[in-house]
Specification:
There is one protein chain. By secondary structure, this protein is an all-alpha fold. It has 4 helices and no strands. The mean pLDDT is 86.
Length: 157
Protein backbone atom coordinates (compact mmCIF):
# COMPACT_ATOMS: atom_id res chain seq x y z
CA UNK A 1 0.00 0.00 0.00
CA UNK A 2 2.81 2.40 0.91
CA UNK A 3 4.52 1.52 -2.37
CA UNK A 4 1.47 2.54 -4.38
CA UNK A 5 1.19 5.76 -2.40
CA UNK A 6 4.81 6.63 -3.20
CA UNK A 7 4.33 5.91 -6.89
CA UNK A 8 1.15 8.03 -7.00
CA UNK A 9 2.71 10.89 -5.09
CA UNK A 10 6.15 11.08 -6.80
CA UNK A 11 5.50 9.44 -10.10
CA UNK A 12 6.58 6.16 -11.58
CA UNK A 13 9.92 7.30 -13.08
CA UNK A 14 11.12 8.92 -9.88
CA UNK A 15 10.32 5.74 -8.01
CA UNK A 16 12.13 3.62 -10.62
CA UNK A 17 15.29 5.76 -10.53
CA UNK A 18 15.28 5.74 -6.74
CA UNK A 19 14.89 1.96 -6.72
CA UNK A 20 17.78 1.54 -9.22
CA UNK A 21 19.97 3.94 -7.26
CA UNK A 22 19.41 2.05 -4.00
CA UNK A 23 20.06 -1.26 -5.81
CA UNK A 24 23.36 0.07 -7.20
CA UNK A 25 24.45 1.34 -3.78
CA UNK A 26 23.67 -2.05 -2.21
CA UNK A 27 25.58 -3.83 -5.01
CA UNK A 28 28.57 -1.51 -4.46
CA UNK A 29 28.49 -2.23 -0.74
CA UNK A 30 28.38 -5.98 -1.45
CA UNK A 31 31.36 -5.71 -3.86
CA UNK A 32 33.40 -3.70 -1.35
CA UNK A 33 32.57 -6.23 1.40
CA UNK A 34 33.57 -9.15 -0.85
CA UNK A 35 36.86 -7.42 -1.74
CA UNK A 36 37.57 -6.83 1.95
CA UNK A 37 36.82 -10.45 2.75
CA UNK A 38 39.15 -11.60 -0.07
CA UNK A 39 41.95 -9.33 1.13
CA UNK A 40 41.44 -10.59 4.67
CA UNK A 41 41.64 -14.21 3.50
CA UNK A 42 44.83 -13.53 1.55
CA UNK A 43 46.36 -11.54 4.40
CA UNK A 44 45.64 -14.32 6.89
CA UNK A 45 47.33 -16.79 4.54
CA UNK A 46 50.38 -14.55 4.11
CA UNK A 47 50.70 -14.05 7.86
CA UNK A 48 50.40 -17.77 8.54
CA UNK A 49 52.96 -18.67 5.87
CA UNK A 50 55.40 -15.94 6.90
CA UNK A 51 55.08 -17.22 10.46
CA UNK A 52 56.68 -20.45 9.29
CA UNK A 53 53.68 -22.67 8.57
CA UNK A 54 54.49 -23.58 4.96
CA UNK A 55 51.90 -26.38 5.01
CA UNK A 56 49.07 -23.83 5.21
CA UNK A 57 47.09 -23.48 1.99
CA UNK A 58 44.84 -20.55 1.16
CA UNK A 59 41.34 -21.76 0.33
CA UNK A 60 40.71 -20.35 -3.15
CA UNK A 61 37.27 -21.93 -3.70
CA UNK A 62 35.40 -18.69 -3.02
CA UNK A 63 37.96 -16.33 -4.52
CA UNK A 64 37.43 -15.11 -8.08
CA UNK A 65 39.52 -13.39 -10.70
CA UNK A 66 42.73 -11.80 -9.54
CA UNK A 67 42.04 -12.78 -5.94
CA UNK A 68 42.03 -16.47 -6.88
CA UNK A 69 45.16 -16.12 -9.03
CA UNK A 70 46.96 -14.31 -6.21
CA UNK A 71 45.94 -16.99 -3.69
CA UNK A 72 47.13 -19.78 -5.99
CA UNK A 73 50.44 -17.97 -6.53
CA UNK A 74 50.90 -17.64 -2.77
CA UNK A 75 50.21 -21.36 -2.36
CA UNK A 76 52.79 -22.12 -5.06
CA UNK A 77 55.31 -19.83 -3.41
CA UNK A 78 54.81 -21.57 -0.06
CA UNK A 79 55.29 -24.95 -1.74
CA UNK A 80 58.54 -23.75 -3.34
CA UNK A 81 59.77 -22.37 -0.01
CA UNK A 82 58.88 -25.66 1.69
CA UNK A 83 60.81 -27.61 -0.95
CA UNK A 84 63.81 -25.31 -0.59
CA UNK A 85 63.75 -25.72 3.20
CA UNK A 86 63.61 -29.51 2.86
CA UNK A 87 66.55 -29.47 0.43
CA UNK A 88 68.52 -27.23 2.81
CA UNK A 89 67.86 -29.61 5.71
CA UNK A 90 68.88 -32.58 3.57
CA UNK A 91 72.08 -30.78 2.57
CA UNK A 92 72.85 -29.96 6.21
CA UNK A 93 72.33 -33.61 7.24
CA UNK A 94 74.59 -34.81 4.43
CA UNK A 95 77.26 -32.25 5.39
CA UNK A 96 77.09 -33.36 9.03
CA UNK A 97 77.38 -37.02 8.01
CA UNK A 98 80.35 -36.21 5.77
CA UNK A 99 82.14 -34.35 8.54
CA UNK A 100 81.47 -37.21 10.97
CA UNK A 101 82.74 -39.83 8.51
CA UNK A 102 85.80 -37.83 7.50
CA UNK A 103 86.74 -37.06 11.10
CA UNK A 104 86.39 -40.75 11.95
CA UNK A 105 88.50 -41.75 8.93
CA UNK A 106 91.20 -39.25 9.91
CA UNK A 107 91.10 -40.16 13.60
CA UNK A 108 91.72 -43.87 12.95
CA UNK A 109 95.20 -43.57 11.37
CA UNK A 110 96.09 -40.71 13.72
CA UNK A 111 95.32 -42.84 16.78
CA UNK A 112 97.34 -45.66 15.27
CA UNK A 113 100.30 -43.31 14.68
CA UNK A 114 100.16 -42.01 18.25
CA UNK A 115 100.07 -45.53 19.69
CA UNK A 116 102.92 -46.82 17.51
CA UNK A 117 105.08 -43.78 18.37
CA UNK A 118 104.52 -44.66 22.04
CA UNK A 119 105.46 -48.29 21.36
CA UNK A 120 108.50 -47.16 19.41
CA UNK A 121 109.71 -45.13 22.39
CA UNK A 122 109.37 -48.10 24.75
CA UNK A 123 111.14 -50.77 22.73
CA UNK A 124 114.85 -51.38 22.29
CA UNK A 125 114.48 -54.26 19.82
CA UNK A 126 115.60 -53.19 16.34
CA UNK A 127 113.29 -55.68 14.56
CA UNK A 128 110.28 -54.31 16.42
CA UNK A 129 111.43 -50.75 15.70
CA UNK A 130 111.62 -51.49 11.98
CA UNK A 131 108.15 -53.08 12.05
CA UNK A 132 106.70 -50.09 13.97
CA UNK A 133 108.36 -47.64 11.58
CA UNK A 134 106.84 -49.46 8.60
CA UNK A 135 103.41 -49.29 10.21
CA UNK A 136 103.95 -45.61 11.06
CA UNK A 137 104.97 -44.88 7.48
CA UNK A 138 101.92 -46.71 6.14
CA UNK A 139 99.48 -44.95 8.52
CA UNK A 140 101.04 -41.51 7.94
CA UNK A 141 100.72 -42.00 4.15
CA UNK A 142 97.11 -43.04 4.64
CA UNK A 143 96.45 -39.95 6.77
CA UNK A 144 98.17 -37.74 4.20
CA UNK A 145 95.98 -39.19 1.43
CA UNK A 146 92.80 -38.63 3.47
CA UNK A 147 93.74 -35.01 4.14
CA UNK A 148 94.55 -34.44 0.46
CA UNK A 149 91.20 -35.90 -0.53
CA UNK A 150 89.47 -33.70 2.01
CA UNK A 151 91.23 -30.60 0.67
CA UNK A 152 90.28 -31.57 -2.89
CA UNK A 153 86.64 -31.98 -1.91
CA UNK A 154 86.57 -28.64 -0.12
CA UNK A 155 88.06 -26.91 -3.18
CA UNK A 156 85.52 -28.60 -5.46
CA UNK A 157 82.59 -27.44 -3.36
Amino acid sequence: MLLFAMIAWHGFWTFLWTFLFIGCVLADIAIVCYGGWCFGTLLKGIQTMSGGDLNYKIDTRFLYGSFREFGEQLNSLAEAAKLAAENQMKSERMRTELITNVSHDIKTPLTSIINYVDLLRRTDDEAERAEYLAILDNQSQRLKKLIEDLMEMSRAS
